[in-house]
Amino acid sequence: NAGVTQTPKFRVLKTGQSMTLLCAQDMNHEYMYWYRQDPGMGLRLIHYSVGEGTTAKGEVPDGYNVSRLKKQNFLLGLESAAPSQTSVYFCASSYSQGRYEQYFGPGTRLTVT
Amino acid sequence: RKEVEQDPGPFNVPEGATVAFNCTYSNSASQSFFWYRQDCRKEPKLLMSVYSSGNEDGRFTAQLNRASQYISLLIRDSKLSDSATYLCVVNGGTGGFKTIFGAGTRLFVKA
């Protein structure tokens, strides 16, 4: 039981490049989330999904796209990376929202130069 | 004003000390509350939920004060291994999906 896994763990991009971050969970959770964490800002929700085939915008969705074609996977795409997207990205999943615990992946450290 | 505010610290305490953190929230309709722990360069993990009546888990006690809109975390007999960042999480309220993470309070426990 791996929980929530993320790939890659580290990445350096140049401005304008694109990439996809992959999140996978093996807990059969309906809800999945993508957050970014910046110093002094706390975790901010980028996009989330309440089930296979559904996605919704969070607090800071601009510059990102997501897809949830399979229940266990949640992909985060950066179409044209900008230095402002330098951050640590965490994926999380939960059984439902509200009073249910969110389980986090180990994070992806992204630097955009 | 931020929706969830925490003192960033750091709190530097000796082993065996008692330390307390507060977290204030602005949305009076918030429904559920949590404390997560995040070690340096690691992912957040649930420490404990916060119940209206207050709850205790070993050396950790969490309390909710709805009237003043804050939650607290008390750590007794601090251990070196308690050194981490403690994130306050507030969930619920009007306007659909709403889980807000505080920026965290850093704790260093020294020998």
Gist?
By secondary structure, chain A is mainly β.
Distance between the termini of chain B: 37 Å
Oligomer: heterodimer
Measured distance between first and last alpha carbons of chain A: 36 Å
Q: How many β-strand runs of chain B?
A: 11
What kind of sheet is the major sheet of chain B? 6 strands, mixed
What summary fits the major beta sheet of chain A? 7 strands, mixed
Number of helices of chain B: 0
Q: Any idea what the radius of gyration of chain A is?
A: 13 Å
Query: Residue share in helices of chain B?
Result: under 10%
Count of individual beta strands of chain A = 11
Describe the structure.
The complex is a heterodimer of chains A (113) and B (111). Chain A is built from no helices and eleven strands. Chain A has 113 residues and is mostly beta strands. In chain A, strands 2, 4, 5, 6, 9, 10 and 11 form a seven-stranded mixed sheet that branches. Chain A has a four-stranded antiparallel sheet with strand order 1-3-8-7, with no helix packed on it. In chain A, a hairpin with a 5-residue loop joins strand 7 and strand 8 (73-78). Chain A is globular and about 35 Å long. The model of chain A has no long low-confidence stretch (mean pLDDT 95). Chain B has 111 residues and is an all-beta fold. Chain B has no helices and eleven strands. Chain B has strands spanning 4-6, 11-14, 19-25, 32-38, 44-50, 55-57, 60-65, 70-75, 84-91, 99-101, 105-110. At the A-B interface, strand 5 of A face strand 5 and strand 10 of B.
Which tags fit this structure?
heterodimer; A: mainly beta; four-stranded antiparallel beta sheet; 11 strands; 0% helix; B: 111 residues; mainly beta; six-stranded mixed beta sheet; five-stranded antiparallel beta sheet
